[in-house]
Each structure stands twice: as structure tokens, then as C-alpha cells.
Amino acid sequence: MLREMKIYPPMSQISDKQTMLGSAKIIPEYNQSLFKKIFMASLVAMLAILWIAGYDSGVGSDEMDMNVYGKANIAYYASGFKDTSFTHPTHSDGTAIDGQIPNYGSGFDYIAIGINKLLGKSDGYEYITRHMLNQFIAIIALLFTGLIAKKIKDYRASLVAIWFIFLTPIFFGLAIFNTKDIPFLAGYIATLYFIICFLEELPKPSWKTTIGLGLALWFELSIRIGGILLIAYIGLFGLFYLLKNKSALSEIKNWGTKLGVALGGAVLLTILCWPYVLLNPIENLFKAINVAKAFPKRIPISFEGEIISSLSLPYSYLTKFMMISIPLIIIISMIVGIIYTLLNWKDLQKKQAYLLILFSGIFPVVYAMYTQMAVYNSWRHLLFIYPSLMIITSIGLITLTDRLGKPALQWAFIGLITIGFIKPVKWCIENNPYEYTYFNELAGGFQKAYYDYDTDYWQITVKESIDWLFAHEPILQSKDTIAIGSNAFTFPNYYIKKRYPNAKVKFYVMGVKSNFAFDWKYGIFNSLFLEPRFIENSFPSPLSKHNIEIDNMPITSIVIDSNRFDNKGFNAFNRNNYKLADSFFTLYLNQIHFNPNSPKNVTQLFGMIAFAKVATNQPLVAKSIAQTALSVIPEDFVANVAMGIACIQTNDAGNAQRYLTMADQIKPGDPMVRQYLGLIRSR
């Protein structure tokens, strides 16, 4: 009889942390201990997976800028405050970094640069160290996420929360290499944890919690000053606490001093570790805050099949990207979890902590939409809210699972959720390390979203294309200098010099549409910033030797062209030798197998080709080529001029005026355009 009895701890020994929301069922202490072990083991496994999946991945230009900027900040202190190059940092090749960069802190970069110094990594492998550190910090973020979920609910909720986050493709992908948004996310959720601890310990919070709060907030502010929002959270929810516990006012000297130490210490350390702010603490600190609220740089964004500006986003931008880039099973779980918890509000044990986490997950989105804050690259700037959303999701799901009662129903519910993860996880495995480009079924999947939204907005696929090029072409064996061109920014030139130091390479940075103006043999072209209609009609080039693909769609194209008829024709065109230009252009059109009914590789060169045809009295051919050019690039000035002149040559005055007027709007005051417009009007 005794062997069949299940012994549970006395009710007096069971805290409300062990009580299931809305259920009389008590989880035994040994079960919680087991879940805790599974939780910690999960974190270790996640770190191992990230380190393996993300090893030696590509590098974004933003990270390179931050690395150089961090070194410039360190140089300021190392020089005895004399080296102020951090105000206008440049890369080793002389490339200037965006002037807004001093408005960012270098908290992560100090750590990464310090580790690289200790390891002696200053070559092409230094970014591997940075990425491994970033992946570790992503796991720290999950640790604090789980600790908050455990505080409000239990370790089962912790497990649900961290696995939901970890299996979210955009989080996993950015955890590999995004050394801005992931550290900021980690600082945000860690600070929220210590805010909850501080408020729960009122009116006598411990020094351990106080120091933890100060350090977490300092780390957050050292990444982006926007973390100052957390101080407002402390004030708002601290006020709620005091209204419910007015007796705590009598202890204000105790907790007020500690709060002052935490907040004041965090702000002071932030200023001392931020050279730009240290130069003029008040003015530059507020300038950094204003830049965080309204980033002034205009970034082109592909959104819903159109190119828009980051400075004039539609209100739906953030929520739309969240809805199409988070796996559907998580979106459904989030809706169900929040609604179910709110419907059972009276049973919730830690209401204040829950409200704080709910507020921290929703308010930033509302604020960003209301102020039309300049954001870009999907919703990465708001990624820091995601742990909060997954905490409240996990609480609701665990509560609902307990309410189902019967084990069969509970396992069926868990199985249903597990099945929902199969498709996105499979996609991530097949497309590693580009998980951050994932789109769910609401966007039609990646292949449909490819034409409607930015995909490889960090150009991470460029690294794979460089490695492929050097593995398959005799660049390292060449005694002559090899010219390589790319529309990718800083990374290719840096990576080739560091990883392939013996290669004789001249590197050109150029646009995809104007690549004909540079004398390169190998071209590496990424789809970033290309209009959807251009991608659909002209990317990749017919001369592509190999493409780096995501979900079978070309993202970075490797073009090999030893003839360069396009460049030779362009040079002849610039010398006004239209007959020679037309000869080279004809060879080029044959080379790419040009078909006006199915045009490919239509760049700004086509306007020049059309003009050369006009100049050599081939108006019908000119009209065909110009029309092809304008169907892909309607703002092409030369194509409009060529079409207008060709229409004059074929006695089509009405269309001639229309195209020349368009050219005049694109480039007002051009003398040739005005001359032809005057000729039309005089007839």
C-alpha cells in the first residue's frame, strides 16, 4: 500500500512558483528540478548548435564598420585621449564609415576586440571570434528569458520560451553574426529580469540585485542609447508597486539609494566608456538619443513589391514583417497564449511581472509605428521585444496544457505544436547560414517573397561566392593582376586581402546597373537594393557562371567575362565614337543572347546601346532596345533620349515629345534634350 502512495511536499513547503496557474495540480519539486536540468542542458546544446552552424559565416558591412569604430574608440583611451579618429573612422583601404556611427556605443566591440587581442586574431579570422561571442551572448539572452519565465510560471514555461525563440529563423540567423541587435536584445531582457527582481525585493532590494541591474543596463546602453527606455519602465512599474505598497515609502532611503546607484552607475559608466559622449556629455548624449528615435539616413527597402524609403515607412511595415517572417505555429501560439492568459487573469500569480513583460513586448512596436521610426532590414531593430513576447506565449501555452487535464489531450497538443515546427526547421537546415531570410506561408514562402521583399539584406552570401570563385578559378596562380568587381560594400575587398593574401587582385565597388563602366573580369553581384522588376527581368546575368541560392532562388551571382564587349563599347561611346561603340554593343548583345521578347541583363547600358543605334541611323532597332531598357529601368535618362530621337527619325512626333519630356524631368536643363524638344515644337 505504501509503495503505491505518491508523496507530495506539504502545502506549507510549496511556493506559489510551484502552483500551476488555474489548476489545483501541484508540480513536485523533483519534477521542477528535472525541468531545470533540461533547461540548462538545452542552453548548452543550443550554444553548440550555433557554434557549429555559424562557424566562419559571412560578415555584414555594418559589423565591419562597428569593428573599426570600436578600435578607434580604444585608440582614444590608449593615446591618453588624444586620438579622436573615432569621430570620422575609416577602413584600412580608406573607405569612410557613415558619419552617424559615433552615435552608437561599442560595448560589444570592446569585449570582442579584447578577446581577439588575447588570442592574437587580427587577420581574416577575427570575425569568427566576434561571431562566436555573439552566439554566446544570444544564449545568455535565452538564459535570462528562461529565468523570467520561471519567475512568473515555472521551468516548463522557460523551456517553451527559449525553444520557441531558438527555432525562430530570424533569431537563429541573426544570432550567428548580427553583433548589434543580438547584444542589444540580450541587454534588454537581462535588464528586465533584474527590474523584476528589484521590484519583488522592495522595500529592501539586495545589493546583488542592484549591481546586476546596473551592469545589465550599462551593457544595454553601451550598445544603443535607445535602451534608456528601460529606465522609464522602472519608473512606471515602480510607481505601480508603491501605489499597492505605500508602506514601502518609509524605506525609500534604502531602496532609493540602491536604485540611484544602479541607474546612475549605468549612465555614468556608459558616458565614461563612450568617447563621443565623453567629449560633450549632455549635448552628444541627447544627439545620440535623437538619432536613435529618428535615424536620418535614407535606406531603400523592397516592401510589397515596391522600393520605398526607410524615412517614410507605412504604418504596417513592422507588423507585416513580423507576420511574414515568424513561423506560423509561433504566431498562432502567441495569439492563443496571450488571449488564454488574459481570459484567466484572476488565476495569474505574478501579475505585475507579467504586465511588465507584456508591456515591454508591445509598447516599443506601438511607439515605433506611432512615430514612424526609421527602421529597415525587416524588423531586426525591434528584435529585442521577441523574448518578452515568447515569455507571455509560453505562460499561456503551459496554462492551457494543464487545463486540458487528460494526458492524451496534453500530448496531442504538444505534438500539434511540434509538427508546426517541422517545415521551418527543415527550411533552416537546408539554407544555413541564411536563416534570417526566412518567410512563412503568409508571404507565400521564400520563393514568392523573393520578388516582394529584401532577402539577403546583409549580403552574407557574398562570402560563399568569393570562396567558390577562388576554388574554381585560377586567381591564385595568376601572375597578372585580376580585376574583381562587386556591388557588395566593404567585405569583399577586406576578405580577399585577409583570407587570400597571395592573390593579385584589384577590387572595384560598383552598382549592378552600371557595372559596364568598370574593367573587371570577375563580377560578384548581390540582389540587395535591386528593384523587384529588375530582379525579375535582369538578375542574374546570362553570363553568370555560378549562383549562390537560397531556397533555389539566386541571391548572389558570379559573372565571368573575359571579352568585356560592354565595357569596350561604353568606352567608345564616351569618346563619341558611336560606330565603334555600336560594333562592340552588337557583339555584347550576341554574347548574352539578347531577345527583346525575353530580355535579360538589362542595365543602364541598354540606353547607350539604343543611342548608338540612333547615332548610326538604325531607329527601328533603337526603339526596340530602348523600349526594352525602359520596361526595366523607366528612369533611364539615355534610354528616354534615344527613344525620343528614334521617334523623331520615324516621324512619330507625339511619342518623341513624350519621351524627351520625361528625359527633361529626369535631368532638367540638358542642352541636347532641350534642342530636340525645340525642334519638335518648331515643326
Give the helices and strands, then pairings:
Blueprint: H1 29-53, H2 61-78, H3 107-119, H4 126-152, H5 155-166, H6 169-177, H7 181-201, H8 207-223, H9 229-244, H10 252-272, H11 275-279, H12 281-293, E1 300-303, E2 306-309, H13 317-325, H14 328-343, H15 351-371, H16 386-404, H17 407-430, H18 445-449, H19 461-472, E3 482-486, H20 490-499, E4 505-509, E5 522-526, H21 532-538, E6 544-550, E7 553-560, H22 565-574, H23 578-591, H24 605-615, H25 619-632, H26 637-649, H27 653-666, H28 671-682
Parallel strand pairs: 3-4, 3-5
Antiparallel strand pairs: 1-2, 5-7, 6-7
Helix pairs in contact: 1-4, 1-5, 2-3, 3-4, 4-5, 4-7, 4-16, 5-16, 7-8, 7-9, 8-10, 14-16, 15-16, 22-23, 23-24, 24-25, 24-26, 25-26, 26-27, 27-28
Number of helices: 28
Give the count of structural domains: 3
Determine the N-to-C terminus distance: 113 Å
Mean pLDDT, as a whole number?
Answer: 90
| Number of separate strands | 7
Structural class: mainly alpha
**Largest sheet, spatial ordering of strands:** 4-3-5-7-6
**Backbone CA Rg:** 30 Å
Task: Note the overall shape.
Answer: elongated
Outline the structure in words.
With 683 residues, this protein is mainly alpha-helical. The protein has 28 helices and seven strands. The chain folds into three domains: 11-57 and 130-430, no CATH class; 461-562, D-Maltodextrin-Binding Protein, domain 2 (3-Layer(aba) Sandwich); 566-682, Serine Threonine Protein Phosphatase 5, Tetratricopeptide repeat, CATH 1.25.40.10. It is 60% helix and 6% strand. The strands form two sheets. It has a five-stranded mixed sheet with strand order 4-3-5-7-6, with helices on one face. A two-stranded antiparallel sheet has the order 1-2. Helix 7 (181-201) runs parallel beside helix 9. The longest helix has 27 residues, at 126-152. The model is unreliable at 1-30 (pLDDT under 50).
